[in-house]
Automatic annotation (TrEMBL):
Phylogenetic lineage: Bacteria, Pseudomonadati, Pseudomonadota, Alphaproteobacteria, Rhodobacterales
GO cellular component terms, semicolon-separated: ribosome
Gene3D superfamilies found in the cross-reference section: Nucleic acid-binding proteins (2.40.50.140)
Protein name: 30S ribosomal protein S1
Gene that produces this protein: rpsA
Keywords: Repeat, Ribonucleoprotein, Ribosomal protein, RNA-binding
Every S1 motif domain range: 26-92, 110-176, 197-265, 282-352, 369-439, 456-524
Family stated for the protein in its record: Belongs to the bacterial ribosomal protein bS1 family.
Cited PROSITE patterns: S1
Function per UniProt: Binds mRNA; thus facilitating recognition of the initiation point. It is needed to translate mRNA with a short Shine-Dalgarno (SD) purine-rich sequence.
C-alpha cells in the first residue's frame, strides 16, 4: 500500500511540474542567489534553471555591489538554456525594464525622478535613473552655464523627464527645470517678505555695463548704474566688485515678472538738497571735467552735483570749436554758476565768465585813435582781418585802406601773414567788433589841408599839369582839376595852353567833397564874384557908367 501511495504522490508531482509553464524568454523572473564565485553571482531562477550574472550589474554607478548569498533578486531571462545548459540572465536588463515601467508612470504623472550623473557625452551628460540611462543636455544642467560639472558627478538628485521613447530607448531629462521650479518658489517667498522702500543686504553676483545683479537671498535684483551714487558713474566696476556685500534699498517690485529694482544712492543724503545755498548765482567755483560732448562739457562741483558748460559759454574768442579742444577730461577748471534748476537737477555753468571780456580789456588798453600792430589773419572781399592782443581780431574795411587808391586796388598790396599797423576807429563790446583804419595812420591830410577852406573861399594854387580838358593844380599837397570851361569868364581865354606848369593862380572854391577828397575850383567863378563885388561897391550899370569904368575905378582904388 505504501509503495503504491508513494508512486501516486510522485506521479502527481511530476504531472504538476509538467503543467507549470516554463517562463518565456525576454521576461523578468525572480531568482535566489545561491553562491558568489569568480566575480559572479549564481542565481537559481527556478524551473530547474540556474544562471550567472557579473557582480558589477548589481552596483549603482560609482558604488560597490551589494549582493550576498540568499538574496532574492529580479533578473531578465534572455535565454532558457545555453550550450552549457545554463540560463542566460541579466540583472541590468531587469533593472532597465523595471526602471522603464517606473519612469513611464512618472512621466505620465509629471513627477520628478531620482538619478545620478555618471558620464559626459557630446552635448551633455548621461544620467542613471535607477537602471535606465537618460541624456541630460548641457543647457539643462543649471539655470546658468556650468563650467565645471565635477561636483555634480555621481550625486543623487531629482530630475524632470522632458521626453522619452521606450521603443527607441531614448530619455531626455532636465535638472534646470527642477532648479527653476524651486527657484520660483524661493523667489515668491523672498519677494513676499520684501516691500518698496525697505533697506536690505545683498551680495553682488554679476556686473554689466548698465548695472549689477544683487542676490537678496534667493532672488536677484537689478541695481542700475544710475542708482548707485548721486555722482556720475561711468562703469559699475568703479564702486562695486563681485562677491561684495552691499546695503541697498528696494525701489520697485513687479509682482508679475518678479523683477526687483534696487538703489544705493537712495540710502545716502541727496546733495541737491543744498545746491541752491552752496552755489548761488554768479558765484565762482573749482570743478573737475567729467565728460565732454559735442555740445559742451560736464563739470563736477562735488560728488553727485554736476553742471553743464555749454559750448557757447566756454570761450570768448574760440567759436565753433569742439569743447575737447578747450578742456580735457579730469581737468580742474574754474566755472561760474549761471543758472540752477532744482526741479530738473540742472546747473548751467560758464567757463568764459571767469575771465574778463577781451573786448572790454582791449577797449580799455587801446581807446579809439590808438595805433596798434597785428598780423593779417584773413583777406576777404570787404577788407582785412588783423590779429590783435587778447586773441581777438579787428577789421580794416576796404574804405579804410588808403586815401588815394580805391579799396579794391589797395587790398591787392596785402598778403596773409603781413605785419601791419592801423588806428583803432571803433570798439563795439556788445557785438564783439573792432574797426581799424590803415589810412588814418598819418592823419587825414585832406582834412588838415582844407581845414580853413570852405565854399566861396579864394585860394592860391600851383599849376602841376596842362591837359586838353583843363589844368591840374595842387593846394597844400592836395590835387584838384580845373576844367577848360572854368579857366576864364571870357570864352576866348578858356585855353589851357595859356598856363604853364609852376604858375600860381587864384581860384574860387566851388565845392568841398570830403568823401571823394576833392576840391571844386574855378577861375571863372572867381572872376564873376569879383565883378559882382566891384559893381556892388562902385555902382551899377544903371548909373550910366560902363563896366570898364567901374573896373578901372576899382583897380585904382586897389592901388
Amino acid at each position: 500500500m505504501s509503495a503504491n501511495a508513494s508512486m501516486e504522490e510522485f506521479e502527481a508531482l511530476l504531472n504538476e511540474s509538467f503543467e507549470m509553464d516554463t517562463p518565456e524568454e525576454g521576461s523578468v523572473v525572480k531568482g535566489k542567489v545561491i553562491a558568489i564565485e569568480a566575480g559572479q553571482a549564481i542565481i537559481d531562477v527556478g524551473y530547474k534553471m540556474e544562471g550567472r550574472v557579473d557582480l558589477k550589474e548589481f552596483a549603482n554607478p560609482g558604488e560597490a555591489p551589494e549582493i550576498a548569498a540568499g538574496d532574492e533578486v529580479e533578473v531578465f531571462l534572455r535565454q532558457v538554456e545555453n550550450a552549457r545548459g545554463e540560463a542566460v540572465i541579466s540583472r541590468e536588463m531587469a533593472r532597465r525594464e523595471e526602471a522603464w515601467d517606473r519612469l513611464e508612470k512618472a512621466y505620465a504623472d509629471e513627477l520628478r525622478v531620482e538619478g545620478a550623473i555618471f558620464g559626459r557625452v557630446k552635448g551633455g551628460f548621461t544620467v542613471d535613473l535607477g537602471g535606465a540611462v537618460a541624456f541630460l543636455p548641457g543647457s539643462q544642467v543649471d539655470v546658468r552655464p556650468v563650467r565645471d560639472a565635477g561636483p555634480l558627478m555621481g550625486l543623487k538628485q531629482p530630475f524632470q523627464i522632458l521626453k522619452m521613447d521606450r521603443r527607441r530607448g531614448n530619455i531626455v531629462v532636465s535638472r534646470r527645470a527642477i532648479l527653476e521650479e524651486s527657484r520660483a518658489e524661493q523667489r515668491a517667498e523672498v519677494i513676499g517678505n520684501l516691500h518698496e522702500g525697505q533697506a536690505v543686504d545683498g551680495v553682488v553676483k554679476n556686473i554689466t555695463e548698465y548695472g549689477a545683479f544683487v542676490d537678496l537671498g534667493g532672488v536677484d535684483g537689478l541695481l542700475h548704474v544710475t542708482d548707485m551714487a548721486w555722482r556720475r558713474v561711468n562703469h559699475p566696476s568703479e564702486i562695486l566688485s563681485i562677491g561684495e556685500t552691499v546695503k541697498v534699498q528696494v525701489i520697485k517690485i513687479n509682482k508679475e515678472t518678479h523683477r526687483i529694482s534696487l538703489g544705493m544712492k537712495q540710502l545716502q543724503e541727496d546733495p541737491w538738497d543744498l545746491v541752491g545755498a552752496k552755489y548761488p548765482l554768479s558765484s565762482v567755483h573749482t570743478g573737475r571735467v567729467t565728460n565732454i560732448t559735442d555740445y559742451g562739457a560736464f563739470v563736477e562741483l562735488e560728488p553727485g552735483v554736476e553742471g553743464l558748460v555749454h559750448v557757447s559759454e566756454m570761450s570768448w574768442t574760440k567759436k565753433n570749436v569742439h569743447p575737447g579742444k578747450i578742456v580735457s577730461t579730469s581737468q580742474e577748471v574754474e566755472v561760474m554758476v549761471l543758472e540752477i534748476d532744482g526741479a530738473k537737477r540742472r546747473v548751467s555753468l560758464g567757463l568764459k565768465q571767469t575771465m574778463r571780456n577781451p573786448w572790454e580789456v582791449f577797449a580799455e588798453q587801446f581807446p579809439e585813435g590808438t595805433e596798434v600792430e597785428g598780423e593779417v589773419k584773413n583777406i576777404t572781399e570787404f577788407g582785412l582781418f588783423i590779429g590783435l592782443e587778447g586773441d581777438i581780431d579787428g577789421m580794416v574795411h576796404l574804405s579804410d585802406l588808403s586815401w588815394d587808391e580805391r579799396g579794391e586796388d589797395a587790398i591787392q598790396n596785402y598778403r596773409k601773414g603781413d605785419m601791419v599797423s592801423a588806428v583803432v576807429s571803433e570798439v563795439d563790446v556788445e557785438k564783439e567788433r573792432i574797426s581799424l583804419s590803415i589810412k588814418a595812420l598819418g592823419g587825414d591830410k585832406f582834412a588838415e589841408a582844407v581845414g580853413g577852406v570852405k565854399r566861396g573861399s579864394i585860394i592860391t594854387v600851383e599849376v602841376t599839369a596842362i591837359e586838353d580838358g583843363g589844368i591840374e593844380v595842387e593846394y597844400e599837397g592836395m590835387k584838384s582839376f580845373i576844367r577848360r570851361s572854368d579857366l576864364s569868364r571870357d570864352r576866348a581865354e578858356q585855353r589851357p595852353e595859356r598856363f604853364s606848369v609852376g604858375n600860381k593862380i587864384d581860384v574860387r572854391v566851388t565845392n568841398v567833397d570830403s568823401k571823394t577828397r576833392r576840391l571844386g575850383l574855378s577861375i571863372k567863378a572867381r572872376e564873376i564874384a569879383e565883378e559882382k563885388e566891384a559893381v556892388a561897391q562902385y555902382g551899377s550899370s544903371d548909373s550910366g557908367a560902363s563896366l570898364g569904368d567901374i573896373l578901372g575905378a576899382a583897380l585904382k582904388g586897389d592901388e
